Prior knowledge:
Blueprint: E1 6-8, E2 11-15, H1 16-28, H2 30-33, E3 37-40, E4 44-48, E5 57-62, E6 65-71, E7 78-82, E8 89-92, H3 94-100, E9 101-103, H4 108-112, E10 135-139, E11 146-151, H5 154-159, H6 164-173, E12 184-188, E13 194-198, E14 202-206, E15 214-216, H7 218-224, E16 225-227
Amino acid sequence: MDQQQQQQKDIIIFQNDQLLNLLTDKFFNIEKNQPNIYYKFQNVEAVQCGINKVGSIIETVTSDGLETMNKIKNHDDFIIKNQTNANEQYIIPFNKFNDKYELFNIDQINNNSNNNSNNNNYNNNSSNNNNNKWILYKPKNNEHNKIKAIKVNKEILNFLEINNNNNNNNSNQNSNSNNNTLYEFYLIASWGEKMIFKENDYLAIPLVKNNEIYRISNKEFNETYRII
């Protein structure tokens, strides 16, 4: 394989499009490889960012440490908090949020809004934008909550030419972590920040709008997704 990834101090870093192109045909092609398809079953809490939070940094911290970080760019973006043991948080754009989630209980509109019924563009999903409170949402039963996902196993690591030599320095740095993985690499995510991948994590591609690839850590994957 013509390995084009950027290497910095023995850390392997892929660009989003690069990793997507490398893996799609061999591992994510439904006709050739039949990758497993999963759906998100777990509810989330969410709050709309608002003007005052634009420019703030949200760190996504899973059970095995810092995964990535992202800057709030738009006031109508949402901050998501997954219902896992880690309660990891991340940012999701307004349109994607409305594609994926709906209020868990419609009565929350009356309990958590100021009866702002004229704001039709928010599709009842931004009932929390006036009070800055976390609101419970459920995944919509649609294609937007389905992903193709594969585990970062030895086959994937060998294909990407990730080996122990690349991770000797990292394993020493992570020796005090609960995750004793020796193999890891990084991706520059679609929002421009570095995202870590570790052995036994999951590589995920949305079933629709599949122009991005991202990490779901192993423990959190099992807490939020089920196979179809």
